[in-house]
Structure formats: structure tokens, C-alpha cells
Write a structure and sequence with these properties.
Layout: H1 8-26, H2 33-39, E1 40-42, E2 48-50, H3 53-100, H4 105-116, H5 118-132, H6 137-147, H7 151-166, H8 170-229, H9 239-265, H10 273-297
Antiparallel strand pairs: 1-2
């Protein structure tokens, strides 16, 4: 997937696309309208809860569809940029070796682009095509730096242009740049390895919370409900309210957990959108599974009148 520059117009279009996709699950809501009305519960202070798991899953599905287009494009862009960032040191080294072999600067750029391949190689080849159509190498490379939002690439292109214009010991400059970017990349990889366990902790915490929900529901709430139904001195327990509260709390945890993972791994909250989608899918899968098979997997004591 090529890099998609997220201008304001394209961001708006992705949001509109998400809203359009959200109409798909939302269009099924009339089929569950009666269940929606029956499942409404007033818990006080004018607050109503939807206790139907099916309806709640449908509503969360609309949220997932709304976020998915922007989340996917943002994720693919970050992967594209990360590959470019990873190949910058090899790119500088390739240019240096080509010039050392007697090639001109443009020939060295083309040779290095063909050698490293990948996203950076394709972008440099596009820049060289613009040069063949009359643009200067400086303008073409600057345009590349403006199209792809990567600070390291902008600095690399500035170094390239400055080295090309100044001449002199261009090989020494390129070798130093390759070494410098290699050190920067090693530091970023080390930081990523250090932060990855914290990001994984969010997923583990989500799974642990869902497991606790399952145990509490089928070993405490449901037995209490049956016990209350078998006596005259206990108030009835509305299991639907508890399930709804646990479902909403899981959804909230998925949203904030996803944002936290994005901030930890990339330093941008928007990078957490893809993690929100994944965590919400886990929540939906869990509650769907529990709704269908939950009571068969945990021993639930039966309470009845003596």
C-alpha cells in the first residue's frame, strides 16, 4: 500500500467513509428494536441502560466501523514510514559506495535506490523521474521530504542536497551520515523493545479483565439471581444490568487502553486507533462467546426451595 498523505480533505473523507460503513451494522438496529425497548432499565437519576448484549454489540460495531478506515490508513502509513526510516543508513552507505566507484551523484542515487528497494527506493526513483522531466534534483528531493511526514527523512534529504551543492569531501559526509543514522535507528529500536512490554501489558490486562468478568458473572451474579428467585425475602437481581455495566466498562477500557498503547509505542494518540479497533473486536468476540456458551463452561450451583 503506498503512502497516503493525510491532508485535511483526506481526513474528512476517511471520517465520512467510516460513518458510511457504520450505517451497515446500524441498519440492523430496527430488527432488534423490540429487544432494545424491552431491555431498557432505569438505574436512577434518569439514567437508562441497554441490557441487551446483542444491541450493545451492534452499537459497538458501529463505533468500530467508524474508526476502521482512518485507523487502517494511519497504521499502513506508519509501517511505510518505519521501513523508510530503517533503510536510511543503508541508503547513505549505498550512495557513498557508488560515488567512490566513480558514478555521478544522480547515478549514485539511482543505483542506491535500486539496491535498497522497498518504499525508500521507490520514492527516490519517483524523485529521479521528476528530474528527467525537467525538475532540479534539489526541488525533487525537497518535494519528497514534504510529501512524507518523517523528520529523519527530511534531515537526510537536507544532508544530501547540502553535500551535493558543496561538493568537496562528499564521500566522508555520506559515510558520517550513514553512521549517524545507524546510531539513531539503533537507539529507536532499543526504545521500542523497552516499551513493547508496557504495550503488551494493556492487552494482557484487557484479557484478564474479561476473564474476571466471566468468572464473576457465572459464579456470583447468576447464582445470586437464582437464589433470590427461589426465596421470598430477597430482592430479585437483574443480571442484565450487571452485564451491561461490565460490557460498558470493557468498552471504555478498550478505548483508553488503545490510546495508551499508541502513545507508548509511537508517541501519538492517533496511533492508538488501530489498537482501539483490535481491543473492541476482542470485547465483542468475548461477549458473543459468553452469550452463546458461557453457562456451559462454568459450574453454576442450582438454588431451589427446600
Amino acid at each position: 500500500m503506498p503512502y497516503i498523505r493525510l491532508t485535511t480533505y483526506r481526513k474528512v473523507m476517511l471520517i465520512v467513509l467510516g460513518l458510511a460503513l457504520a450505517l451497515a451494522p446500524l441498519s440492523l438496529l430496527p430488527l432488534f428494536l423490540e429487544e432494545l425497548v424491552i431491555s431498557l432499565r432505569n438505574i436512577g437519576l434518569g439514567i437508562y441502560l441497554i441490557t441487551s448484549t446483542k444491541v450493545n454489540i451492534l452499537l459497538v460495531s458501529t463505533l468500530i466501523m467508524t474508526l476502521m478506515p482512518y485507523a487502517i490508513v494511519d497504521f499502513m502509513n506508519r509501517r511505510y514510514v518505519d521501513i523508510i526510516d530503517k533503510t536510511i543508513p543503508a541508503f547513505f552507505k549505498g550512495i557513498s559506495e557508488s560515488i567512490r566507484a566513480g558514478m555521478t551523484f544522480l547515478e549514485a542515487l539511482r543505483n542506491a535506490a535500486l539496491t535498497i528497494g522497498g518504499p525508500l527506493g521507490r520514492e527516490i526513483e519517483r524523485a529521479l523521474v521528476r528530474v528527467e522531466f525537467g525538475a532540479t534534483i534539489e526541488d525533487s528531493l525537497y518535494r519528497l521530504a514534504q510529501e512524507i511526514k518523517l523528520p529523519n527523512l527530511r534531515r537526510a534529504i537536507t544532508i544530501l542536497i547540502t553535500a551535493h551543492e558543496s561538493g568537496g569531501k562528499i564521500i566522508d559526509v555520506l559515510d558520517s551520515a550513514a553512521e549517524m543514522y545507524g546510531i539513531i535507528r539503533a537507539y529507536e529500536e532499543e526504545k521500542r523493545v523497552t516499551l513493547n512490554p508496557y504495550a503488551i501489558t494493556v492487552y494482557v490486562a484487557m484479557l484478564l479483565y474479561l476473564f474476571i468478568i466471566y468468572i464473576i458473572t457465572y459464579t456470583m451474579f447468576i447464582p445470586l439471581s437464582r437464589m433470590a428467585a427461589g426465596t421470598t425475602f430477597l430482592r430479585p437481581v437483574d443480571i442484565g444490568i450487571y452485564k451491561a455495566v461490565l460490557f460498558y466498562s470493557s468498552t471504555i477500557e478498550a478505548i483508553f487502553g488503545g490510546l495508551m498503547v499508541g502513545k507508548l509505542k509511537v508517541g501519538k494518540v492517533s496511533a492508538g486507533l488501530i489498537h482501539i479497533v483490535i481491543l473492541l473486536l476482542i470485547v465483542i468476540a468475548f461477549f458473543t462467546f459468553v452469550e452463546l456458551y458461557g453457562e456451559y463452561l462454568v459450574f453454576t450451583p442450582q438454588f431451589s426451595r427446600p
